[in-house]
């Protein structure tokens, strides 16, 4: 009896791990701190509600889970042909498309429900936001600007968090959303350098496939310069404590290291640049804003 119970628990754990790997759940750390940063800034002007924080977290996780699951379904046939992605859960057979679709429908519904619970405006906006997040999966089939579209879709997160609390938008949060947009687009360009030849052979679009690795990486740097520019505008708009400039300097250093780790003819450290550096950048931003608020 005990052995059967243990097997059931292990089966549930394995299923959770499979779905978690499918959507790369650990990558939630890239955008979530930006949304929480917007939330912390909003609480300087609007009433704090613990329920808002929980619902915003639920909205962020569910939206990303639905979008990533949809992406894996749409790209399953392409992923199967690519040696780098052939062992992903759907192409490898670890997960069926039907099960992934149920996953996407569930988390899409959860995102819409969280929007409804956050207010009428969030509920209305949840539908176009979900559409933008899912539309990204098709963009590399027809435009090299897919990285910008991804940045725009994910960049909606801070704006959404602010709207959830303030029921309106703020110029300062638009700056934060644009900073996230540039941040996401920049490192997505670097990541796409792994598939240049494959993308060309499959008639897929990306900056690296169109411009080559060297020019694409230069454009990635430009996007990250925009990120720093908009973060400075956030600092100015909210009249933040000068200590926040220290955190901006650290973020700038991390971005420099990220671009030093990846070179056109050497992508060996792409995963370190992609996950570790970007995780540090997002967490540093949120930490900086929390410290700034506490000092004020």
Shape: globular
Number of strands: 0
List the secondary-structure elements in sequence, H or E.
HHHHHHHHHHHHHH
Structural class: mainly alpha
Mean pLDDT: 92
Report helical residue fraction: over 70%
Compute the number of structural domains: 1
| Name of the CATH architecture | Orthogonal Bundle
* Name of the CATH class: Mainly Alpha
Strand content: under 5%
Name the poorly predicted regions. none
Structure characterization notes:
The protein has 296 residues and is mainly α. The protein has a single domain, classed as Tetracycline Repressor, domain 2 (Orthogonal Bundle). It is 79% helix and 0% strand. The protein is globular and about 55 Å long. The protein starts with a helix and ends with a helix.
Task: Summarize the entry for a quick read.
This protein is mainly alpha-helical and 296 residues long.
Question: Which features would summarize this protein structure in a list?
Answer:
single chain; 296 residues; mainly alpha; Tetracycline Repressor, domain 2; 14 helices; 79% helix; globular
């Amino acid at each position: 009896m005990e052995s059967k119970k243990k097997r059931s628990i292990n089966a549930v754990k394995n299923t959770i791990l499979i779905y978690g790997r499918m959507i790369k759940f650990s990558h939630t750390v890239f955008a979530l701190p930006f949304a929480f940063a917007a939330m912390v800034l909003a609480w300087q002007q609007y009433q704090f509600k613990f329920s808002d924080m929980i619902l915003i977290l639920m909205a962020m996780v569910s939206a990303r889970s639905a979008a990533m699951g949809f992406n894996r379904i749409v790209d399953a046939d392409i992923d199967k042909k690519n040696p780098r992605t052939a062992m992903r859960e759907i192409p490898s057979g670890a997960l069926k498309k039907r099960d992934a679709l149920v996953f996407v429908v569930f988390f899409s519904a959860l995102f819409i429900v969280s929007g409804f619970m956050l207010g009428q405006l969030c509920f209305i906006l949840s539908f176009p936001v979900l559409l933008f997040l899912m539309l990204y999966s098709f963009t590399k089939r027809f435009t090299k600007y897919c990285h910008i579209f991804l940045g725009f879709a994910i960049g909606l997160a801070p704006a959404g968090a602010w709207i959830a609390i303030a029921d309106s938008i703020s110029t300062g949060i638009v700056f934060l959303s644009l900073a996230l947009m540039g941040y996401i687009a920049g490192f997505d360009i670097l990541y796409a350098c792994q598939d240049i030849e494959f993308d060309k052979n499959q008639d897929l679009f990306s900056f690296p496939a169109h411009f080559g690795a060297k020019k694409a990486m230069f454009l990635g740097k430009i996007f990250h310069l925009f990120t720093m520019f908009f973060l400075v505008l956030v600092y100015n708009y909210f009249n933040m404590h000068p200590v926040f400039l220290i955190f901006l300097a650290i973020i700038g250093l991390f971005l420099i290291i990220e671009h030093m780790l990846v070179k056109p003819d050497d992508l060996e450290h792409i995963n370190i640049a992609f996950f570790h550096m970007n995780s540090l950048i997002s967490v540093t931003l949120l930490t900086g804003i929390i410290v700034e608020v506490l000092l004020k």
